[in-house]
Structure formats: C-alpha cells, structure tokens
Amino acid sequence: WILNYDIMARFRRRTCIILLLFILFICSIMMALKTLRPDRAGFGDPFGLGLLPELQQRIVLLDNKQNSLNRIQGDTVTRVSNLHSIAVNTMKASMPPVNKLEEELSSPNYNFHIFYYSWFGNPQFDGKYIHWNHPLLPHWDPKIANNYPKGRHNPPEDIGANFYPELGSYSSKDPSVIEAHMKQMRSASTGVIVLSWYPPGMADENGEPTDDLVPVILDYAHKYNLKVTFHIEPYKDRDDRSMYHNVKYIIDKYGGHPAFYRHKTSTGRFLPMFYVYDSYVTIPEIWANLLTASGSQTIRNTPYDALFIALLVEERHKHDIHRSGFDGMYTYFATNGFSYGSSHHNWASLKAFCDSNNLMFIPSVGPGYIDTSIRPWNNHNTRNRVNGKYYETAFSAALLVRPEIISITSFNEWHEGTQIEKAVPKRTGQVVYLDYKPHKPNVYLELTQKWSEKYRKEQEQWLM
C-alpha cells in the first residue's frame, strides 16, 4: 500500500509540472501573438461597422468633427487631402490614400452623367429633418385624394421613400456622406455629377437653399477625379434675364474650380453644360432671347456661352427645343412608357431628329421607379426593378442609338425610387422598405460600372 501511495504522489507531481509548463507555453504564445497585432486594432475598430447604418452614422459624426476643424485652413485641393489624413490619424481607420483609391476604383467615364440631389437634412447637421419628412402629396382630383392618407413622414424610421439608404436619414451637408457618395459614384465608373441647383436663397417647396454646399461638393468631386455640372431647377420667375444672371453667377463663382465640367464640342471648344429641368414651361421665344445669336439677352459668343440641354417630355417639344436655340435634349424620367421622351422605343427617332438638326441627344436610364411613399395614388407609374433587369434593358436601349452622353436617373432621388445609391433592408412597426435582395447594397453601382465599360468598348467601334 505504501508503494502504491508513493507512485501516486509522484504521478500527481509530474501532472502538476506538466500542467504548469503547458500554462506557461500558452501564455508565451499569447504574448507573441499580441506583439503581432496591428497598431490600429482594438475595441471599436471601425472595420466592418459600416455594415450597420446606425453604427456607421456614429462614425460619420466623429469623422465630421475632424473634417470641420480642418476645413478652416489650406487651399481648395490641399484642404480635401488634409481632411482625409486627419480622419485617418484620429479614427485609425483603414481608408487607403488617394493614390491607392485611384488604383482600386474604376476610371471615371465622362460620358456617363448622373443626377445628384443635395437637399437632404437631419437634426445633427441641419437642426431638423429636410426632405426625409416629405409630405404625402394629394391627388389633384379631390374624389381620388380622399381615398388616400394625408400628412407627412416622421424620420428616422419613417422616411419619404420606398427604399432605405445604407447611410440612414443622412444630411447632404455631412462631409462624410458627401465623400461616401463620391466614392460610390466613382466606383460606378460615372464621371459627371449633374447637381440639382437653385439660385442662392432659393429652394424647392420642401427644402432649404443649398448653393452654399456647391464648393464642398466640388472639392470632394475633385478628390475622386469627378466633374460637376448643374441641373437648373424651375425656380420662381425663371426666364431669359434671370437665367443669364444665374449662368453668369455659376461660371464666375465655380468655373475656375478643377472639378467644374466642360464638354469638348465638335469644333474643339470646351464649354460648360447646363441641364434645364422643365424647360418646356417657358415658351420658345423667351429661350430664343437667351440662346440664339440674335436674341436680346443672348449668351452666345460671350464668356458665358455654354451647352444648354432641354428636357423633352412630349414629341412636339423637339421642335420647340430646336426653335429655342438649345444645344440638345435629355429625357430624365426613369419610367419607360411614362412620356414620349422616356419611352425607349422612341429614342431612335429622337436621335435621328437631333442628328439632322445638330443637337445632342442624351437618353436618361434608370433602375426603376416607385414614388408611392409621397404619391400613394401613383401605383400605375411604378416600374419594378426586376433584380436589375429593368436597368440593364434601359442601358441596352440607350447604347443602340449610339449617344454621345448617357444620363442616369439617379444617384439619390429617393422619393421617386430611382436611386442607385446603396440601400439596405429595413422593417419598422409600420413600414417594410423595399431592398435590392437577393443582391448586395451596391448592386446598381456594379451594374453601372459594367455598362460604363461596355459603352466604352462599343464607342470605340462607333468611332472606327
């Protein structure tokens, strides 16, 4: 029995020694691994948090504080670069430097123009929600209007859109949002941002003035090698005189910025370009005062000459556009069949008319259309995205007419459901938002990039 006890004691000691050695071995491995951890790693590392919109907005707010401090100093281009470096140093984020971004992102296609809206606001940046709280618009027939709800949306859970942005109910003034948008548009291989614009102090009926934001948008666009042109909205009392002054204002104030878009014409001139929304509201005689060489307010052959692109809705508008002195036409609406101009099967005849009258034809393609969040009675104009097939059909129709420029409706017109900006699934107590499933939030950016490359290849064949 004594012999057995001695054997057991030695066995216990040996077990304890082995266990102690094993623990020391594990500790030494842990210490070694710790020394291999990257400096930026730690609790709250922002990698991956962008997948959650709520967390992403918190990061955006922190990033914006640093961006705002830096914007006070430096020249225009240096200021944007400094914003980037300060954000990296303070947040210890994994965002690559600009030259690396250039390598990773698709090259911009300056023949792909995309409509962009900077009218959104939230309490953090604007003191209140703007546009996300859009009212429900009544039908013009009171009998029909009585069958639908009234009131306005109540963000952030309830917004005036059928889809929900990955960035949440953002502010267009948030520098981090602007940068995220530029990166998305660049990743989609678009090249020209068509910025919705009202004159200083003016806005649409649901918004606030946004002209003060133009310099910031130009700065960030330049960082991503994008260009900016202007989508002149139908502001109050828009006529030949006010348009002359507003075009002069835009060119004088923004024309010297490296991101200001100029289009090379067939004569070799580089001219600014202006899209004119709802141009048909003004009679051709008024436009001719501004846009023809003999007009009383002519802008032709002056330092403010430019290319002016009119909106074509009805077929008869093509003759009015020609008489007015416009340089081209675009179709804007993303609803195939909604208007003459937005119907794909009419694009060939419109392109032929433009070719024979020395006009540019710019078809507008879109991923779909749904605006029942603000016009609940407008179901008949909804166009289902069909998991991207609707968008690709529109691109295919546009390429058939070999246009010099294709416009995209839109990057972020959320009210009308034409956006290609990243959207995420969301369900609230009252609303189930549409989403891009089974695809990822960036599917429409990827499709745009795919067709941008296809356009480039086909354009090479057209020019041969």
UniProtKB/TrEMBL annotation:
CC terms in the record's Gene Ontology section: Golgi membrane
Catalyzed reactions: N-{alpha-Glc-(1->3)-alpha-Man-(1->2)-alpha-Man-(1->2)-alpha-Man-(1->3)-[alpha-Man-(1->2)-alpha-Man-(1->3)-[alpha-Man-(1->2)-alpha-Man-(1->6)]-alpha-Man-(1->6)]-beta-Man-(1->4)-beta-GlcNAc-(1->4)-beta-GlcNAc}-L-asparaginyl-[protein] + H2O = alpha-D-glucosyl-(1->3)-D-mannopyranose + N(4)-{alpha-D-Man-(1->2)-alpha-D-Man-(1->3)-[alpha-D-Man-(1->2)-alpha-D-Man-(1->3)-[alpha-D-Man-(1->2)-alpha-D-Man-(1->6)]-alpha-D-Man-(1->6)]-beta-D-Man-(1->4)-beta-D-GlaNAc-(1->4)-beta-D-GlcNAc}-L-asparaginyl-[protein] (N-glucan mannose isomer 8A1,2,3B1,2)
A Pfam entry, by short name: Glyco_hydro_99
Top-level class of the enzyme under EC nomenclature: hydrolase
CDD domains (alphabetical): GH99 (cd11574)
Entry keywords, A to Z: Golgi apparatus, Hydrolase, Membrane, Signal-anchor, Transmembrane, Transmembrane helix
EC number(s) on file: 3.2.1.130
Coiled-coil spans in chain: none
Subcellular location: Golgi apparatus membrane
Protein known as: Glycoprotein endo-alpha-1,2-mannosidase
GO molecular function, one term: glycoprotein endo-alpha-1,2-mannosidase activity
The UniProt record lists the keyword Transferase: no
Alphabetical list of PANTHER family matching this protein: ENDO-ALPHA-1,2-MANNOSIDASE, GLYCOPROTEIN ENDO-ALPHA-1,2-MANNOSIDASE
Family the UniProt entry places it in: Belongs to the glycosyl hydrolase 99 family.
Superkingdom of origin organism: Eukaryota
Membrane-related topology note: Single-pass type II membrane protein
